[in-house]
Amino acid sequence: MPLVALTGGIASGKSTIAGRLAEHGAVVVDADRIVREVQSPGSPVLAAIADAFGERMLHPDGSLDRAALGAAVFGDESAIARLNAIVHPAVRAESARRFSEAFAADPDAVVVYDVPLLVEARVDDPWELVVVAHAPAEVRERRLVELRGLTPAEAEARLASQVPDEARLRIADVVIDTAGTIDDTLRQVDELWASLSDHVARRRARA
């Protein structure tokens, strides 16, 4: 019942890897989706965000104004810390519930936690394997501009706001090089899946 953490910087191809692992039969738990769900209208998390940052963080219908919240905390380490103190415990609890649910349904399941902020928030959790999607910063910056419509300055700021690539690579058991074609990335994921038990065994041996 391996519990695998999958992480990577913005525009690193992490979603492509998660999708391929799901095709192989992995149960993928998406941290970003959990974040959106715990911040849904009427939730304690959303109420706490409004208390901490003001009612202007909410749309008229009571939903979170993600753009306003992002603007309020971007580049402000103390504001980010306050926000994380509200959101992270709820995400941790809900992700743990989903892991348990998946393993209860199938004790032999491979559960993959697709989590952007692994280094920042979850690095010490009991992962059986840590997989890092990696492409050089210039490649990811180009993707943000060409595929997501950001300006070069916006893309550079997004990359600069994340932990350095070295911090993710330092904790990796497996690195998927996503700088090439999608087919090349998928081939590496297929190879990972075929040798997953060996990777997990090696990590356990080092523990």
UniProtKB/TrEMBL annotation:
Q: In which pathway does it act?
A: Cofactor biosynthesis; coenzyme A biosynthesis; CoA from (R)-pantothenate: step 5/5
For this protein, what is the EC number? 2.7.1.24
Signal sequence segment? none
Question: Which compartment or compartments is the protein found in?
Answer: Cytoplasm
Into which EC class is this enzyme placed? transferase
> Per the record's keyword annotation, is Acetylation included, yes or no?
no
Answer whether the UniProt record assigns the keyword Cell membrane to this protein: no
A Pfam family this protein belongs to?
CoaE
Q: What is its main location?
A: cytoplasm
Could you give a GO molecular-function term held by this entry?
A: dephospho-CoA kinase activity
Could you tell me the keywords of this UniProt record? ATP-binding, Coenzyme A biosynthesis, Cytoplasm, Kinase, Nucleotide-binding, Transferase
**What reactions does this protein catalyze?**
3'-dephospho-CoA + ATP = ADP + CoA + H(+)
Entry superkingdom: Bacteria
InterPro entries linked to this entry: Depp_CoAkinase, P-loop_NTPase
**Amino-acid positions noted as binding ATP in the UniProt annotation, renumbered to this chain:** 11-16
Instruction: Give the PROSITE patterns listed for this entry.
Output: DPCK
NCBIfam families linked to this entry: dephospho-CoA kinase (TIGR00152), PRK03333.1 (NF002879)
Q: What does this protein do?
A: Catalyzes the phosphorylation of the 3'-hydroxyl group of dephosphocoenzyme A to form coenzyme A.
- Please name the HAMAP family in this protein's record: Dephospho_CoA_kinase (MF_00376)
Which family does the record claim for this protein?
Answer: Belongs to the CoaE family.
> What PANTHER family is this protein classified in?
BIFUNCTIONAL COENZYME A SYNTHASE-RELATED, DEPHOSPHO-COA KINASE-RELATED
Name of the protein? Dephospho-CoA kinase
